[in-house]
Amino acid sequence: MTPIKNHHQALTLIELIVAVSLFAILALAITRVFLRVMDVQDKITNQQNLEGDLRYALGVLTDETKKSKKFIAAECSAYCSCSSDTYFCVNSVAPGIKNKLCVLDNKDVCVQYYVTNGRLIAQRLASVYTITSADIFINKIYFDTLTSNSSTVAIRLSATSTKNANESVYYQTAITNTPLQ
C-alpha cells in the first residue's frame, strides 16, 4: 500500500501577515485617494455656488440699473448726494471708497445698493432686501461712474465662500443704462 501524500503547503504566519499588510496598505491608499477626490469636489462645488450667487446678484443689479431713470431733481437726496441729469449716484462712506449706489427705478422710487455684514442689500424706501445668500461674504464692493453725468457705472467686488474662506473671487463689470425716458 502506498502512503497518501498531501502536497498542500500550509500558509505560514509571516506570509499571512505580509498579505494582510499589503491589503491594508492598498485599502489605505484607495481611501486616501477617495477622500482627496471628495475634498476637491467639495471645493469645486463651493466655488461654483459662490460664482452662481454672485452672477445672480450682479444680474439683479444689472437689470435694475439698465432700466433706471435719469435723476431730474433730488429724488434720492435723502439717501445719496445726487445731482440731476445723472443715471447713477455713487456715494462714499470714506474718502475714496465708493460703496453705495443709488438708482431711480421705473416707478420713481430711489433704490440703494450697498453691502452690510458681507451681504449685498437693495433698499427701496423702508423695504430692505438681501440679494446674496448667507453662503458668500462680500469683502469689498466699489461703484464708480466714469463722468458726472455718465450712463455707465463700473462695479468691482471681491467675495469669499463662507464654507471655504481660502478662495476669493474678484468680479469687475460695467453696466450701461438703456434709458426708459
TrEMBL record:
Keywords: Membrane, Transmembrane, Transmembrane helix. The chain crosses the membrane at residues 12-35. Pfam families: N_methyl (PF07963). InterPro entries: N_methyl_site, Pilin-like. It comes from the Bacteria. This is Type II secretion system protein J. It comes from Candidatus Falkowbacteria bacterium CG10_big_fil_rev_8_21_14_0_10_37_14.
